[in-house]
């Protein structure tokens, strides 16, 4: 729970101090990218904070390298 | 406004970037011959550094992503830019996680690690939004402080050093030394490929080749001083048991009865180098994302890139032992990005340059890509 609260506070700061000023630019592309990244990373962080297992890219890379070089 | 850093600032950034984790983690396996491996690793890096220098000299005023797009065109170029960007995101997240692990384990174990991640990331994103000039000025100001810290702790450690811990030289055997040298060649020396993404900000009228030489040279010297001090004070057998050997080494040093527990200096240096290293990776990711998505101002990508790195840093591994497992295979994982792809880029750039000399065309407008 503390993880989620800390993340939400941080994301609120990012929203107010960076995302909203960035949206004042006319670039639609920037708005789409920022919104998608913001929503996706927030979702992942909330799920992680709730205890869901989020797969990391590290173990598959380790297994791949070990299978090639072992 | 074009952002410009001079040669000294670039050297400072590169030196702090390469020093990065080694200020606390030590180097390699922290064995008695690691100092030899550092020298050999730097020697392995020399031809790769020549490749990096040649790539930037063929296209002065351009960074690595610009060069990739010029050489390989829109589609293949963007695929390669995406590969480098993903690599920078991954390694940048590892760097962030390493530094925050240190803070969590060594200093504030009761504070959630995400707090350190957020603070470190916020500072790095602020650095990116401020521009490369701020990074250059910051690094140039901080590097002498780091040099002074390492020198002072080395001098204080002299009375506790037992140089017989470094003997016999070459005891580990050439195979082991060479293997460790290759690991050091990959991490940290060849990570300088990420620094090439900042090269368009380096003044083109100065001796740009010397940046890699002096930056790497400073990092090599400082790493050797640190590892020799650590081995001479604690001994190689004790160092291998520690996650943060430099931190522990400095913690046992004292000057008289009142000047003790100097490991706070190590922690401060580690954080400063860590901030520069994380900022350079964040710059690389921001540049890469702006190229991929055709966003004009890379600074707009600072926080989106940072959010991705923050999320990846949180989930990438669940314990420090998993990070050690990954570090053991890192030299194989990173070789394509740090050696093979730059060589391909260099060959492509030489061929394109040769063809342009035979059949001159109008300069490629990067805004078309």
Automatic annotation (TrEMBL), chain A:
Segments traversing the membrane: 32-50
Superkingdom of the organism of origin: Bacteria
Keywords, ordered alphabetically: Membrane, Transmembrane, Transmembrane helix
The protein, known as: Uncharacterized protein
Organism this protein belongs to: Papillibacter cinnamivorans DSM 12816
Automatic annotation (TrEMBL), chain B:
GO cellular component, one term: membrane
Topology class, membrane: Multi-pass membrane protein
GO-annotated biological processes: spore germination
Keyword Transmembrane helix (UniProt): yes
Annotated Pfam families: Spore_permease
Compartment annotation: Membrane
Taxonomic superkingdom: Bacteria
Transmembrane stretches, start-end: 36-55, 67-90, 102-126, 138-158, 181-199, 211-232, 264-289, 301-320, 332-349
Keywords: Germination, Membrane, Transmembrane, Transmembrane helix, Transport
Assigned protein family: Belongs to the amino acid-polyamine-organocation (APC) superfamily. Spore germination protein (SGP) (TC 2.A.3.9) family.
PANTHER family reported in the protein's UniProt record: SPORE GERMINATION PROTEIN A2
Protein name: Spore germination protein KB
Organism, scientific name: Papillibacter cinnamivorans DSM 12816
């Amino acid at each position: 729970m503390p993880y989620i609260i800390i993340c939400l506070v941080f994301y609120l700061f990012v929203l107010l101090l960076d995302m909203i000023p960035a949206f004042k630019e006319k670039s639609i592309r920037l708005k789409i990218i920022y919104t998608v990244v913001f929503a996706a990373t927030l979702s992942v962080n909330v799920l992680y904070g709730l205890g869901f297992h989020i797969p990391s890219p590290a173990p598959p890379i380790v297994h791949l390298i070990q299978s090639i070089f072992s | 406004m074009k952002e410009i850093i001079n040669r000294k600032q670039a050297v400072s950034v590169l030196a702090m970037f390469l020093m990065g984790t080694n200020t606390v983690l030590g180097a390699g396996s922290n064995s008695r011959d690691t100092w030899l491996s550092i020298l050999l690793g730097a020697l392995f890096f020399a031809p790769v550094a020549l490749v990096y220098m040649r790539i930037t000299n063929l296209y002065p005023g351009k960074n690595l992503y610009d060069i990739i797009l010029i050489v390989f065109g829109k589609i293949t170029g963007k695929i390669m830019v995406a590969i480098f960007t993903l690599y920078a995101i991954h390694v940048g997240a590892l760097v962030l996680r390493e530094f925050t692990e240190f803070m969590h384990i060594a200093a504030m174990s009761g504070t959630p690690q995400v707090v350190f991640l957020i603070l470190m990331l916020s500072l790095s994103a602020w650095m990116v939004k401020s521009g490369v000039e701020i990074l250059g000025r910051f690094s140039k100001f901080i590097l002498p402080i780091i040099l002074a810290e390492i020198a002072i702790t080395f001098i204080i450690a002299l009375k506790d050093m037992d140089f017989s811990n470094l003997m016999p030289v070459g005891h580990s055997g050439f195979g082991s030394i060479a293997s460790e040298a290759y690991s050091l060649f990959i991490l940290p020396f060849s990570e300088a490929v990420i620094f090439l993404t900042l090269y368009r900000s380096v003044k083109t009228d100065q001796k740009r080749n010397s940046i890699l030489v002096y930056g790497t040279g400073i990092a090599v010297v400082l790493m050797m001083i640190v590892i020799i001090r650590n081995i001479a004070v604690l001994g190689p057998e004790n160092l291998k048991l520690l996650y943060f050997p430099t931190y522990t080494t400095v913690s046992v040093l004292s000057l008289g009865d009142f000047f003790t527990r100097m490991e706070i200096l190590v922690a401060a240096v580690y954080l400063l180098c860590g901030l520069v290293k994380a900022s350079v990776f964040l710059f690389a990711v921001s540049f890469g994302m702006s190229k991929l998505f055709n966003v004009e101002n890379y600074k707009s990508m600072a926080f989106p890139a940072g959010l991705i790195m923050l999320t990846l840093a949180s989930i990438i591994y669940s314990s420090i032992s998993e990070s050690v497992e990954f570090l053991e295979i890192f030299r194989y994982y990173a070789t394509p990005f740090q050696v093979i792809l730059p060589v391909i880029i260099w060959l492509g750039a030489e061929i394109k340059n040769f063809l342009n000399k035979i059949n001159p065309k109008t300069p490629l407008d990067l805004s078309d890509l």
